[in-house]
Amino acid sequence: MTEDTPRAEQPRPHFHREHWHSLNGAWEFAIDPVGEIRDRRDGTGLDRTITVPFAPESVLSGIGETGFMESVWYARDIVRPDGWDGQRILLHFGAVDWQARIFADGREIGLHRGGSTGFTVDLTDALASGSCRLVVHAEDHLQSGTQPAGKQSRRPHSWGCYYTRTTGIWQSVWLEAAGDTYLSAVDMVTDAAGHVTLTPRPAHWRPGLTFHVSASLDGQQVADAERPLLPGAPLQLTIPEPRAWAPGSPTLYDLTYELRDGTQVIDRVQAYCGLRDVAIAGDRILLNGAEIYHRFVLDQGFYPDGIWTAPDDAALRRDIELSMAMGFNGARLHQKVFEPRFHYWADRLGYLTWGESPSWGAEPEDDEANGNMLEEWPAIVAQCRNHPSIIAWSPHNESGWGKGRNEPIEEPHLRLIERLAAITRALDPTRPVNDASGWVHRDTDIWTVHSYQQDPEKLSAQLSPYPDVYRDAPQSEPDYAGQPYILDEFGGAAFDASEAQDYASIDAEREAGAAWGYGTAPASIEELEARIRDQVAAVNAIPHIRGWCYTQLTDVEQEQNGVLTYDRVPKLPIETYAEIFSAEPSRVGS
Fold it and tell me: Residues with Cβ < 8 Å from 360, sequence gap 6 or more?
């Protein structure tokens, strides 16, 4: 790595080895216009240069083309790092949207489908001679309606709440040196009492090995344990005098995983854990046995110069710090799988999140789309579940989008929601499941609704009836059954801070497609403050509501309803936001 390597930080701090090497930076690149480049697996004829890990639609990539790209090619030469002889060499991709084929010296060595999860290819044999020609072919058929794509626009340009697309490599690429038998993953379950259950997932397993784990805090070892390495067999670790992880005291224990052959360590991985547990008691969500009232913000994770990819690690941390400074205790991560570095900072800073799939873009009544959702969502949960900051899952958002209130939802769609909820619980029974944020609920641990009613009195009246609580959903939704009730989208007042001297023009701009948000735009900055203040106060006063999620953290392209501009400039003073959003609800404990 050099000083100018983009995104040079360790991409996966919750599971990494000492010896790793970033492949971010300049790669050869070509956009394949409808069959003109039929096959470039040998890496020849790529006439452009792209900066990885930024998608070609982004300014930071050096390409900056925003049209549809169904096929793109990447290539670069790889040299085995010094001192890595005799070890397995793993090639990691943080994410490639949407299908990726990997070639080494013209031979296909890997295939991955799904644009939001990382994957690994064993490059050992390809580097037997010391070097190879690495080629990545990415295909992205967004307009097909079969791919989970989140808020990526299926029209030629951004519009409404759909934004610039992301194609190909959009997270870091790196090499890592591992043992001949190595840990591909370790599943983790913890509780606030200090119990840690670790299930190793070894690659190239052979009998006779031992799995050893040690835990330390502030550089001092506090516990260790070992057992024979058996795939799927858990190891129990108990940490004495445990310090729980929670907002305000986000204690993390450093973990070292080792695979041992007798006294020889053949693979070593560094990780960490937070001791905490999440539970539901009646209509409350508990963290470490105490109710946690959600003061969340909707975060879409877009950046002006990087789109889905943060320009640097500091930007990820800064978004969380800004959110916390404004009084939010967490975020609903909306229609995007955030990169591991974001979750790392959430873990470090004590910031709560809900994990969500990028479900939009996959038509829920299409068999291929459903298959892709059912394949990718388990991989998302598996990738993210060791982060203590994630306290709930949302596999789907606003099911039945576009359906009227009296229109039934088709059976394949309903079955998809039910299957996603069941799969989530099977993979992670330790967190509650919000089966379909907003609507249509089928089998949910949390009852969520969305309302963008801008008048606070009407909002209060809309949400107050109980138990016949508000829901703006099509048919096919069961009755409310007393789950924790959370307003997980509201607010969203349209306000274009760049037009601060011409408020009357905002609604006209929105009509023309140049701006977008909810409700009639406030006529002044004072009116914006009053609207946000009154809405939050109205929701805080409703007895059965156990939390809320305000839309949204930042403006995104033409959507101008963030508390921050797209460039992360607060529209109101930070102190004003903090006063509004950190206010204690008047009904806690009722």
Answer: 148, 149, 150, 151, 335, 397, 401
Classify strands 195-203 and 253-261 as parallel, antiparallel or unpaired: unpaired
Tell me the three-class secondary structure of 55-85, residue by residue. Answer: CCCCCCCCCCCCCCCCEEEEEEEEECCCCCC
Residue 497: count other Cβ atoms within 10 Å of its Cβ: 18
Terminal alpha carbon distance of the chain: 56
DSSP string, 10-56: -S-TTEE-S-EEE--EEEEEEE--TTSS---TT-----EEEEETS-T
Q: What pLDDT band is residue 238 in, cutting at 50, 70 and 90?
A: very high
CA distances from 63 to 26, 354, 416 (A): 12, 33, 38
Is the CA virtual torsion 126, 132, 135, 136 positive or negative?
positive
Sorted by sequence, the CB contacts under 8 Å of residue 35 that are 6+ apart come out as none
Other CB atoms within 10 A of residue 407 CB: 12
425 membership: H or E segment, kind and range: helix 411-427
Three-class SS state of 315: helix
Tell me the per-residue pLDDT of 274-295, one tens digit each, with 9 for 90 and over. 999 999 999 999 999 999 999 9
**Which is it for the CA torsion 217, 218, 221, 225, positive or negative?**
positive
* Owner of token pair 């003109």: 36
Q: Report helix, strand or coil for 101.
A: strand
Residues 6 or more apart in contact with residue 38 via CB below 8 angstroms? none
CA 564 remoteness from chain centre: 20
In terms of Cα–Cα distance, which of 189, 187, 196, 193 is closest to 215? 196
Q: How many helices (H) and strands (E) does the chain have?
A: 8, 32
Is the sign of the CA dihedral 104, 108, 111, 115 positive or negative?
A: positive
One-character DSSP codes across 350-389:
T-EEEEE---TTB-TT-HHHHHHHHHHHHHHHHHHTT-TT
pLDDT of 294-316, one tens digit each? Answer: 999 999 999 999 999 999 999 99
Distance between CA atoms of residues 572 and 340, nearest Å: 30
Q: Which two tokens stand for residue 288?
A: 């470490």
User: Quick one: which of 335, 339, 338 has its CA closest to 360?
Assistant: 335
3-state SS, 490-539, equals: EECECCCHHHCCCCCHHHHHHHCCCCECECCCCCCHHHHHHHHHHHHHHH
Q: Which residue has the tokens 């040690």?
A: 214
Tell whether omega for the bond before 558 is within 30 degrees of 0, i.e. cis. no
Distance CA 168, CA 179 (A): 30
Is the pTM higher than 0.90? The answer reads: yes
CB 182 within 8 A of CB 88: yes
Specify burial of residue 519 (Cβ count, 10 A radius: 0-12, 13-18, 19+): middle
